[in-house]
Amino acid sequence: MTPQRVTMITLSVLNIAVSREFYLKLGWQEAKGGNDKIAFFKLRGLYLSLYSRDALTSDIGMPIATRTTGAITLATNYESPDAVDAAYDTALKAGAIDVTKPAKTDWGGYSGMIADPDGHLWEYAHNPFWSFDDDGYLTGNA
Questions:
Q1: Are residues 27 and 77 in the same domain?
Q2: Are strands 121-126 and 73-77 parallel, antiparallel or unpaired?
Q3: Residues 30, 95: contact at Cβ < 8 Å?
Q4: Are residues 127 and 86 in the same domain?
Q5: Cα–Cα 20 to 30 A to 97, which of 18, 91, 125, 128?
Q6: What are the pLDDT digits (tens) for 17-41?
Q7: Is residue 11 part of a domain?
Q8: Which domain holds residue 94?
Q9: Which CATH number belongs to the domain containing residue 111 in this structure?
Q10: pLDDT digits (tens, 9 = 90+) for 100-115
């Protein structure tokens, strides 16, 4: 078994069509296997799935709205503050909720936050202490 690995992140959504369209407008490529209850987006080494709240509630056997699971944010890191601004603007045009406009941070980076149509929080960040490989994927500390 490989430790420290995530293979799927599933976001519960109220309207699969609206959420699917939002991520497509961000430029994400939908993977095969989706239907009117679930959509898959292949990332490097894992998938992001959007799953209708009704279907997820049925699968897990309990109402999602009555359970507190804690807050979570997802993040996308970029190579520069300008790239953060561009991604942030694209998200707003795709229908994102403006949470925090990109700005310099107290830890030396630059970030802003949006929410998708279901309120899932996404941070768009530039961390000058991290590096990227030739394909633009985060490799860790510079």
A1: no
A2: parallel
A3: no
A4: yes
A5: 128
A6: 999 999 999 999 999 999 999 999 9
A7: yes
A8: 72-137
A9: 3.10.180.10
A10: 999 999 999 999 999 9
